Amino acid sequence: MKRVVLDTNISISAFFWNGIPRTVYDLAKNQKLILLYSKDIEKELIRVLSYNKFGLIPAEILPIANEYRTTGLFVKVHSSLTVIKEDPTDNIFLNCAVDGNAHYIISGDPHLLNLKKYNGIQIVKAREFLIKEKYI
Questions:
Q1: CATH number, domain at 128?
Q2: 3-state DSSP assignment of residue 136
Q3: How far apart are the first and last CA of the chain?
Q4: Which string of b and e fits 80-105 if b means at least 16 CB within 10 Å?
Q5: Cβ neighbours of residue 53 under 8 Å, at least 6 residues apart?
Q6: Which of 1, 27, 39, 114 could bridge across to 32 with cysteines, CB 3.0–4.6 Å?
Q7: Environment class of 18 (CB within 10 Å of its CB; exposed 0-12, middle 13-18, buried 19+)
Q8: pLDDT (tens digit, 9 = 90+) per residue, 39-55?
Q9: Neighbouring C-alpha atoms within 13 Å toward the C-beta of 19
């Protein structure tokens, strides 16, 4: 089974809208792939969900975070990579992917996508992942 790390922009899109990111997330919920996450990724997700533009209060964020936890597999991260200099916070996805033996990082972020591959891990957009893995 493929092991994937979702960038926060993919996770947020999956929670709020129908579309390709939701399809990827649903594959994890239905145990067709393994969603990997770390403490830092979880903190980043909660931080972004707290943005005013989403209009959520803490009581609404908690169920989303809990669903994410139950859908995903927690990875204890030991790596501390500094590959992405333009936006160092993006390195949390690489750290999780490396330590979790991920096959893919799925992202919409150019800082990650520009790498295309890191340490054997493919970095792709959600649609590209679904096509490569023959889900669509």
A1: 3.40.50.1010
A2: coil
A3: 17
A4: ebeebeeeeebbbbbbbbbbbebbbb
A5: none
A6: 27
A7: exposed
A8: 999 999 999 999 999 99
A9: 12
CA distance 95 to 75: 10
Q: How far apart are CA 117 and CA 113, in angstroms?
A: 8
Regarding pTM above 0.70, the answer is: yes
Count: domains in the chain:
1
- Residue partners of 62: CB distance under 8 A and separation at least 6: none
Reported as a single tens digit per residue, the pLDDT across 15-45 is 999 999 999 999 999 999 999 999 999 999 9
Residue range(s) defining the domain that contains residue 120? 3-132
* Tokens found for residue 23: 């399809």
Give me the helix-helix angle, 20-29 and 8-16, nearest 10°: 90
